[in-house]
Amino acid sequence: MQLEFNLRLSISDRNFNDQLDEAAAERARLHEEQLARAAEEHAKVLRGAELELQRLNLEEERSRLRNQEEQQRQIEQLQREKAQQQADAQRRQLEAQRREEEIARQAAEHQKKLQEAEARQKAHREQQAAAEKQRIEKEETDRKAKETADAAEKARAQQAAQQAAPRPAVPAVQAAPAVAPQPAAAPKAPGTAQAPNAAIEIIHTQYLELHQRMKKFRVEFWNANKKPGQPLKAAIGDARRNMRLKLGQINVERATSQVAIKSLRADSFDVALNAPGPTVDIRPFLVGQTIPPLANEQEAQYPAFLLYMWIMFEKFLLKQFEKEASNEDGRIIQELGLIAASLFADQKYMWKGITLIDVLLAKMHHICPILFGVRGNMNTAQGQKRLGWMPIDKQPPTGEIYMQRIRGLSAGFAAMSLRAFKTVPALPMSEYWRVVVHVCNTPSEDLYPGHFAILGGLLRDFKLKFLQFYGVQARAVLRRAVVDLPARAPERCKEAAGIISVFQEQWKKEKLFLN
């Protein structure tokens, strides 16, 4: 019994131990499986990470290649643009060179024609003088021969009479004195060219003197205020830059002009008007205006900063007129003229109701005297200066640039003067009439191509306004300008006069007839 019990107990222990071993083995197996699955999952994560890293590296490489290609494309684009700019610059240089060569060739041909014409005229005069001398000598010879024949015939007649009827001797007949030969009529001297009106010369001199005062003031004012620490230095620079920028942005859109003139007033002229600073006696800068009586010298003071702005404005404005003259569309010059006329007529910037238009006119008298009836001779340095033939932008003048400057300034003058204002205009409409008539009244011997460039600038875009304001009288002046004046132009002006003479045919297409 005891043995059986022990046997069963032993069997039970063995079974229990076997169960424990099986359970331990099962747990070990499960643990191994979990470890295997964890290792497999870890391997999957590692492979995923490696693949993601490869993808990121590949994407980064692709991005680098794209950036490199884009940079290369931009470099090539810049190289192409630079090459194009260089080609354009070379082309413009060649065109400018060709134009200069053409102008030089035309000038040489013109000079050659003048010399040939002078040689022909000289030969013709010499032939006429020789023929006249021969005629006089022949007349003198014929006269003497006739006198000799008459004397001989008279002596024979007297001798025959004496022989036929002898009479007491009488004193010998005194021979009639020979008639002194009449001197040949001296050729009539050509009419002396009519000197320009003295009033024109006086006014022109006054404006030239004003221009010198303006130049002196401008240099001294800026030198005094450009030094570091000067309170007006920044304001002057900003106002001047804004003025140049806004005038350069003008186009044919009226809205742009309105924005520009608003900025010119607010950011340039108002700044100069309201900025504290020195003043200047304005009377030396007024030429064509009547100075009212003043209670004291203080009333003659005007803001120096504002006067400086007017001087800079006329410089930028006239330069813009010259630049825009190269465009066939003259509307930009008309917009510039509108802006200038509006500013000069603004009471806010006047002195005691007097406009500062003389500042602009002084500059125009300096660079374009021919516009105001001043005459000269292109064969002399002084005459060239009086006709506006002077360096432009510190470069020697050429025929093309000279004519463009005169056209632009004339068109700008027309754009400022040929306007109807509700208030008194700064530049009266009558000044336009005066300039046109000055050109039409120029004697033929004083005409040069510049006179016809003036007419081109004054008439091309403004003839309808001229007719609108002056009616029949304007029509008569237009006929004198485009028909009569070109017809009496000297040889040196034929090409320039031809451009003006075709206006009549062009205007007929616009239903404008001068007959």
Topology:
Elements: H1 2-164, H2 198-225, H3 233-248, H4 254-274, E1 279-281, E2 301-303, H5 304-324, H6 331-344, H7 357-367, H8 381-386, H9 399-417, H10 429-440, H11 449-459, H12 463-487, H13 494-501, H14 503-509
Antiparallel strand pairs: 1-2
Region (Disordered): 61-176
Family: Belongs to the GLE1 family.
Pfam family, one: GLE1
Describe this structure in words.
- The protein is an all-alpha fold.
- It has three domains: about 25-85; about 100-145; about 200-510, Serine Threonine Protein Phosphatase 5, Tetratricopeptide repeat (Alpha Horseshoe), CATH 1.25.40.510.
- About 70% of the residues lie in helices and about 0% in strands.
- It is built from 14 helices and two strands, in the order H-H-H-H-E-E-H-H-H-H-H-H-H-H-H-H.
- It has helices spanning about 1-165, 200-225, 235-250, 255-275, 305-325, 330-345, 355-365, 380-385, 400-415, 430-440, 450-460, 465-485, 495-500, 505-510; strands at about 280, 300-305.
- A two-stranded antiparallel ribbon has the order 1-2.
- The longest helix has about 160 residues, at about 1-165.
- The chain is elongated.
- This is mRNA export factor GLE1.
- GO terms for molecular function: inositol hexakisphosphate binding; phospholipid binding; translation initiation factor binding.
- Belongs to the GLE1 family.
Quick recap of the structure?
With 515 residues, this protein is an all-alpha fold. The protein has helices at 2-164, 198-225, 233-248, 254-274, 304-324, 331-344, 357-367, 381-386, 399-417, 429-440, 449-459, 463-487, 494-501, 503-509; strands at 279-281, 301-303. Keywords: mRNA transport, Nuclear pore complex, Nucleus, Protein transport, Translocation, Transport.
